[in-house]
Amino acid sequence: MPTIKDIAKMAGVSHGTVSNVLNNRGNVSIEKIRAVEAAAREVGYQLNAQAKSLREGHTNTISVILPNITTTHYNKLYLGLDNLLSRQGYNVDLYTTNDQQQNELQIIQKIAANRNYAVIAVSCLEDADEYYSQLKISPEKIIFAYRHLYNARNYQTLDFRLAGKEIAQALDKKALKNVGLFTDLNQYSCTADFMQGFEQQWLSQNPDRQITHIPTSPSRSYNDAFNFFTGTPPDAIITSDIEKARYIKNANFLGNLGQAPRIYSLSDAEFIIEEQVHQYHMNYELLGKQIAEWLLNSTDDKTPPKINIQNRGFMFDHRLNAHLASRPATTLNILTLPSPSTDALKKLLPNFRHKTGIDVRLNIHPFNDIYEILTNLEHHQYYDIIRIDMAGLPWFAKSTLKPLSELGDEVYQLLSHYSQQIVKRYSQVNGQFYAIPFDPSIQMLFYRKDIFNDAKVKRMFYEQHKRELAPPATFEEFDTIARFFSRALNPQSPLEYGACASLGNTEIVASEFLLRYYSLGGRLRQEDCTLKLDPVLGAETIREYIDSLKVVKNLSATWWNESVSLFESGSVAMIIVYMNLFSHTLHSTISPLVGFDSVPDNKALIGGGSLGVSKYSQKESEAAEFFKWVFSDEIAEQIVLLGGHFRQ
User: Fold this and answer.
1) What number is the average pLDDT over the span 113-130?
2) Are 271 and 250 in the same domain?
3) Where is the HTH lacI-type domain (predicted)?
4) Contacts from 409-415 at CB under 8 Å and sequence distance 24+?
5) Which residue of 66, 116, 318, 635 shows the fewest CB atoms closer than 10 Å?
């Protein structure tokens, strides 16, 4: 097996130099880094991460122990943990027990031989002392999820009792008498809580109601599902996870000659249609994320506060609004900009049509065209809803939009989703409320963190500029880094450009100018309340901006989408853009390589826009239905999942 000594000899460097390169320390010249990496590849050397961890006197491994990885609430808990912990440099080791105590005890012994930082377990044991007696880990960093054990010092779960109660409340409206419960074993606290919440609510309404409860283990779940159909099946069956609901569907299809029961099930927070199953949504993944956040931020061994996460409950009302459906066919015309949020909204409009019977036609126009339309709205009276930029709201609100008060209290109450500052900037003009914030945004710096963290690139930058490569804190640093990554100026750059600029639209150029102008201490509103530029700072800003254009990629695009696409393609090291125009990139393949930071000098402009109703529209009730739909939690989530930026 090749050693560090072999690499040092082949590369012609010292043992310490090899160690510095392999451990990604930046105090080595670029020539020596290349020589060491070439030698390491030649001899087939791989760094022993475990030995490195032991030498450093600690481990960055966190073990997760689950009954299995296929059941939704275990799988999502793991994803929530792993997504955050892995990004912070921790190794997450997964173990499964199949709910067998002997398996779990053997896993504990295996973990005890390592120097783990923490353990998260969904345990089938009875007493937490089995962990505390064998693991040399702070008891507070041994976290038990879902199932409470005797003597457990750190136990975190969701509100399964409330879930049972609210499912029973939903069934109260169905005039059912006999229901079935299909759950994990009673000995687990999450099952007991769910059962108690359901039974108390269900029987409190009518003590004569019947409950058939079949507790089961993972190995028997499919077989036990058929037991509900050996006689007259229940009117409804409630399952503790979506996998059991699928077993019930199979058992009903294959083993039931009678009427199919209604099926209700606990499910993940993510909305995924499951035919014939009414899903009650729980935040399993968020629980994992918040446990991970506590582990990352804990500075002592004090017992953490209980994590309190709201159940999402039942999502989406699929019933057609009878009042609206009885009216003649109606179409809402919406005027909007091209953006990721618009693209996402377009995909979801069939749901609004299904729910209300109202068609929606999106009229998508460039930024400048919308300003022209708003200036002459009397010639465009067919528009019902207008997406208006926050910068234009003070100018156009009174002349183009109806006050929200004309749309009813339910629409007005939508403003409660937002902070007072957002409402003031995106909704209110001279004390009147005209619009609901749709995609409020702010400028941010996005950069290729994989390139910024590359040891060779960092050393190359240090040798040229005598300082560390890091996200720019000032525009002087931004321009320096842009020159460094410009391959035309630096042939060794791993990317073609350091940055880019869109020059085909005066609004974009003005935005770029103001960002730099404010960074120099400039202001538009002077002390005498007049609006004007400081001539000295303005001239300096123009000089800096023009100089920057000499080293970045110049684009003739009239909007930021071409800049974002160039960054997505891997050609550009940095981009400054509004978040609402960049959000879809977070769903692309480049997402894991993207870092973000405040804009240089931290004087970001805010952007995005709001939705209001045209003063000429005669469809107030239809517009109100659209507002209630698009600003609902369910649709807001779907817009984000589809790459949009929505409701901050």
Assistant:
1) 92
2) yes
3) 2-56
4) 410/624, 410/628, 411/436, 411/624, 411/627, 411/628, 414/627, 414/628, 414/631
5) 318
**Residue 418: CB atoms within 10 Å:** 18
- Mention every residue, 6+ apart, whose C-beta is less than 8 A from residue 158: 146, 190, 282, 283, 284, 287, 309, 311
Q: Is residue 78 part of a domain?
A: no
How far is 334 from 346, CA to CA, in rounded Å?
11
Domain that holds residue 213: 160-282
Q: Determine the angle formed by the axes of helices 189-205 and 160-172, rounding to 10 degrees.
A: 30
Whether 16 has a pLDDT exceeding 90, the answer reads no
329 secondary structure, DSSP code: P
**Paired tokens of 325:** 């459906």
Backbone angles phi, psi at 101, to 5 degrees: -60, -40
* Amino acid of residue 117: Y
Contact 616, 381 (CB under 8 A): yes
Give the mean pLDDT of 573-585.
87
Q: Are strands 277-282 and 313-314 parallel, antiparallel or unpaired?
A: antiparallel
516 within 8 A of 478, measured Cβ to Cβ: no
Which value, to the nearest 10 degrees, does the dihedral of the CA atoms of residues 7, 10, 11, 13 take? 80
For residue 174, name the pLDDT band (cuts at 50, 70, 90).
confident
Euclidean distance between CA atoms 216 and 136, whole angstroms: 34
pLDDT of residue 327: 60
Are residue 590 and residue 452 in the same domain, yes or no? yes
Query: What does the alpha-carbon distance between residue 132 and residue 22 come to, in Å, rounded to a whole number?
Result: 36
| pLDDT value of residue 543 | 95
Q: E-strand spans in 482-573?
A: 500-502, 553-555
Least confidently predicted of 45-59, 386-400, 465-479, 513-527? 45-59
Q: How many domains does the chain have?
A: 4
Give the C-alpha separation, 192 to 196, whole Å: 6
pLDDT of residue 320: 47
Whether residue 569 is found in the same domain as residue 614: no
Picking from 142, 77, 150, the residue whose alpha carbon sits closest to that of residue 295 is 142
The answer on pLDDT for 201 being more than 60 is yes
Q: Which CATH number fits the domain that encloses residue 24?
A: 1.10.260.40
The pTM score is: 0.67
> Do 447 and 544 lie in a common domain?
yes
DSSP, collapsed to helix, strand or coil, labels residue 370 as helix
When mean pLDDT is compared across 224-228, 267-271, 301-305, the lowest value belongs to: 301-305
Cβ atoms 552, 484 nearer than 8 A:
no
* CATH number for 547: 3.40.190.10
| pLDDT for position 300 | 64
Q: What is the pLDDT of residues 513-527, one digit of tens each?
A: 999 999 999 888 877
**SS3 at position 255:** helix
Domain end residue (candidates: 255, 282, 309):
282
Pair 329, 411 in one domain: yes
At 49 the pLDDT is: 44
Q: Are residues 613 and 514 in the same domain?
A: no
Give the 3-state secondary structure of residue 225: helix
374 and 266 inside one domain:
no
Q: Average the pLDDT over 130-147 and give the result.
A: 93
Collapsing DSSP to helix, strand or coil, 234 comes out as coil
Residue 224 vs residues 73, 181, 255, 639: alpha-carbon distances, Å: 20, 12, 12, 39
Is the residue at 524 inside a domain? yes
Instruction: Specify burial of residue 239 (Cβ count, 10 A radius: 0-12, 13-18, 19+).
Output: buried
Please indicate, yes or no, if residue 137 is contained in any of the structural domains: no
Q: Categorize the per-residue pLDDT at 555 as very low, low, confident or very high, splitting at 50, 70 and 90.
A: very high
One domain for residues 383 and 326: yes
| Mean pLDDT across the chain | 88
